[in-house]
Specification:
- It contains 12 helices and 5 strands.
- By secondary structure, it is of the alpha+beta class.
- Strands 1-2-3-5-4 form a 5-stranded mixed β-sheet, with helices on one face.
- Helix 2 runs antiparallel to helix 3, helix 2 crosses helix 4 and helix 7 packs antiparallel against helix 8.
- About 1% of the residues have low confidence.
């Protein structure tokens, strides 16, 4: 495999390969652009004639101003060169590109401006020297490799014709230069592409930071949208289906109590329907409460958790201290954490009592649920802990559970108070 890779590299960098000529044309075309910065700085000095007051400061300021005005077109041409010859797309920089050419003068301390200057004044001249070296290697290699033909066929009387050893040496040097030129061109091309990507495009660290912030905003919007949708479903169920079930249960109960002379079989159907309606109403109320309890929005997390604790068939010690209130999305996550944790305690823990603590410290809402049950809770065992941890992570929270065999089990959740 290594031999195949080496053979492929040799074939790609052969003097007659398309890649070799592409690299050569790329680095050669960059020489004028890469020297343009210093040429612009020295352009006004070439027209300077001594006068009584030496205008060195004025010439320097004018040269710098001319260079700053030329930065945008020079940078744009460099990007176009990379795209046209290498298919390398270098994105534009929001803090540098756009607007008019003299807009770069508005913020001389812009990091983007100094990165572009670093490329055109420090890096580009060395790349131009590399490009000139590639051109020289091709030209000198071609001249030396054909020296024997020139000496014997074109000018038989040339001094080289009488020194075959010199001709062989010069020809060998020329061939070596022709072989080395594609490798040098490839190296300069890689350096040029990396420097252009790093200095003429957006800063990677800032771009990653911007993307993270953008994703965080989108994630927060999705979480808020899901919470709003849950509230809408809860409201529709509460105002629609629940009211219909209440009316149905009342009518069936009224029929059950007032109808007389009804056959036993028909009365049995009415009783069963009444009981089913009440059971469906209870399940619907539990579903509505699980979607988004109205008391959470109206009276806050303390009242909502008090209602949850009151429905648990175990002694629950509840402590809530969350002033000022967190965002509604975070409060909803904290509510579901406590509700699901208490449900797991009732179903699996065989506990005698539960401690629930919800406290705010700075910008963090800390939720802790501790029971004295059997322990051994495993998030991968299908107890709802995996979904609970996923819900906590959706708002950049942390979820930890400690549950040794024999207990106690402690669920600790930390949530950011604002999204």
């Amino acid at each position: 495999m290594a031999s195949l890779s080496a053979a492929r590299r040799v074939r790609v960098h052969a003097p007659w390969s398309a890649a070799a000529w592409r690299d050569t044309v790329f680095v050669a075309s960059g020489v004028p652009l890469q020297l343009a910065g210093w040429l612009i700085l020295g352009s006004l000095w070439s027209f300077w004639t001594p006068v009584r007051v030496t205008p060195s400061v004025l010439l320097t300021c004018a040269s710098v101003l001319l260079l700053l005005l030329a930065l945008r077109p020079l940078t744009s041409w460099q990007r176009e060169r990379c795209w046209a010859m290498l298919s390398l797309d270098i994105p534009r920089m929001p803090g540098f590109d756009g607007g008019r050419a003299w807009d770069v003068l508005r913020d001389p301390r812009s990091p983007e401006l100094w990165r572009v200057l670093q490329y055109h004044l420090l890096v580009a001249p060395f790349l131009a020297l590399g490009g000139l070296a590639v051109i020289g290697a091709w030209a000198a290699g071609l001249a030396l490799a054909t020296s024997a033909t020139y000496a014997w066929a074109v000018h038989p009387g040339d001094p080289l014709a009488g020194h075959p050893q010199r001709v062989v040496v010069l020809t060998a040097v020329g061939v070596l230069l022709l072989v080395a030129a594609p490798w040098v061109a490839a190296g300069v091309r890689r350096l040029d592409a990396r420097a252009a990507s790093a200095l003429l495009g957006p800063d990677r660290a800032k771009e990653l930071q911007r993307r993270v912030e953008d994703l965080a905003e989108k994630r927060a919007s999705v979480v808020d949208a899901a919470d709003i949708e849950r509230r809408r479903i809860e409201r529709d169920l509460h105002d629609g289906a629940q009211q219909r079930l209440v009316s149905l249960a009342l009518n069936l109960g009224l029929a059950r109590e007032t109808l007389t002379g009804v056959p036993d079989e028909a009365m049995r159907v009415i009783v069963e329907a009444h009981e089913e309606a009440k059971a469906a109403l209870t399940e619907l109320r539990d579903l509505i409460r699980g979607l988004h309890p109205a008391v959470l929005e109206d009276r806050g997390l303390d009242a909502a958790l008090s209602g949850v604790a009151a429905r648990v068939p175990l002694p629950v010690r509840l402590r809530v201290d969350i002033e000022p209130r967190a965002s509604s999305t975070v409060e909803a996550v904290a509510y579901f954490v406590v509700s699901e944790a208490l449900t797991n305690v009732v179903k699996h823990a065989r506990a005698n009592e539960v401690d629930v603590s919800v406290a705010r410290g700075g910008d963090v809402l800390r939720v802790m649920v501790r029971d004295d049950g059997a322990g051994g809770a495993d998030p991968s065992a299908g107890t709802g802990l995996t979904g609970l941890a996923r819900r906590v992570r959706s708002v950049d929270g942390t979820f930890r559970i400690t549950s040794p065999a024999g207990g106690p089990t402690t669920v600790t959740v930390e949530l950011p108070c604002a999204l």
